[in-house]
Amino acid sequence: MYPTASASPLPASQPNSGGSLLLQSFKNKDGSLDINKAMETAGMMVNTVSQISKVVKDMAGWMKA
């Protein structure tokens, strides 16, 4: 009836634990941690949260009016 998803969405070489997969996203090709990439990503997350919180506050103000 419905299409089925594959049993393993990640390639077999990828670990299944979320924490190590997250850390692998910030590693260089030589396996060392890329601090600049991690800091850039953290900065983008902070900016996104800040923008979303402003929108939520504005919407809450509209609902009160």
TrEMBL record:
Pfam families referenced in this protein's UniProt entry, alphabetically: YppG
Taxonomic classification: Bacteria, Bacillati, Bacillota, Bacilli, Bacillales
> What protein name does the entry list?
Uncharacterized protein
Q: Where is this region: Disordered?
A: 1-24
